[in-house]
Amino acid sequence: MSNEAFDDRYELREFAPGTDDKGAPNAETEAWMQAVGLGFHETHPGEEAAGRMVEHFVEDGNTWLGAYVRRPAPGSVDETWPAGTFAWFRKPLSWGDGSSIDTQAISAVTVRPTERRRGILRRMMTHALERGVAEGYAVASLTASEGTIYRRFGFGSAIRERAVSVRRDRALPFLAPTSGVVSVVTPEWLAGGPGRAVFDRFDARTPGSMVRNAGTWPVALGLRTQDGEKAKDVRAAVHRPDGSDEVDGYVTWRVKENRDGDTVLEVVDLVYATDEAYLSLWEFLLSVDLNDVVKYNRSRLDDPIVAALGDNRAYDVDHEEDHVWLRVLDVEAVLASRPYAVDGSLTLAVTDALGFASGTYRLDVQEARGSVTKVADDVDVAGSDIQLDVADLGALLLGSVSPTTLASAGLVRAVDPAAPALLRTMLTPPRTPHGITYF
């Protein structure tokens, strides 16, 4: 759809969410939330829960965008609800060495089925990324409900995750002894401070970790359900190192019956500041009586539990999919912000259909830090070591995806195969990237 035709049919409105004098969502906020609920097949929360959600959106600093039909059909929700929704806010991304970079975190992207293929998503995305550049973001981020939408806008899948199951009857004992002490606590005690303190330590040491939304915490810590109601079935436990009172890991969980008749312990949240805490909390979960299977939906791809189990066939991968997607807006700034494993120099030719990151860049790394120089505004294939699309640069950023793998897939191009191998080594992260935050 041409810009003229789009503007004739729709009006884009950017606003901040807010509440009325009774603490409920104001009219514009309520209509936008209704549209998002329709798009994601979510029940609308009650007035109290909706007001609490808006407080969280305000705390996170949300900017909301809506595409509104100018001439809605009589009686249609288009009279007040936007036909397309979009949100963004600031969310730091950890490099795993204590440093981070602020990302323009994108969320709540929907388009009404009646308005598909009219350019709504492209217009909202372009508007938001232009605002992101103006606000100084070097990279945008998102977690996606579908895996085929965002590459065309320059996003690359930078972290994948697994949903796994471990059968209790074959899991224990572990091959090596664990350490520390695990204690059962109440979710309320965990929410009083220890939970967030552990997450802060996890976040600082884990590449790909992202600060959580305000509304995530009551659910992760077992206080509320996804619908905002008081949770009644979640338990919690913490790990402390031997001889210490400091908590360095926690888990929240619930137990349910599945359709196959198994009793399943479902991990709600598992956060660890040390590998010892991770192993000990898993050993605890596998020791809980009256359940058959422990399920965890946020496992990293090189989960050490596989190696620790007495029988590694007790561990099954139920599902694997993309998690964190990254979109580079400023190549120089984002490459200069991260740590590197080895020194080296490479010239990268980056294509970008939206124009934000197009150009040829020289990356020079010395003593684990990189400096970047834009050597050409255009894509100089002949003068570059590596050629790639901005989506693939985003996929490579954290070091979870290998340039040699993308070269084998035909997405990273180089005359000398040593160039992707050098880039892979340079980008090797201090630990395996692990994102446990959705937004």
TrEMBL record:
Eis-like acetyltransferase domain span: 208-316
Keyword terms, alphabetized: Acyltransferase, Transferase
Protein origin, superkingdom: Bacteria
Alphabetized Gene3D superfamilies for the sequence: 3.40.630.30, SCP2 sterol-binding domain
Transmembrane segments: none
Record flagged with keyword Acyltransferase: yes
Record Pfam families: Acetyltransf_17, Acetyltransf_9, SCP2_2
Record: active site: Y150, F439
Domain Enhanced intracellular survival protein: 331-434
Keyword Transferase: yes
Residues bound to acetyl-CoA: V109, T110, V111, R117, R118, G119, I120, L121, R122, S145, E146
Family: Belongs to the acetyltransferase Eis family.
Assembly behavior: Homohexamer; trimer of dimers.
Record's protein name: GNAT family N-acetyltransferase
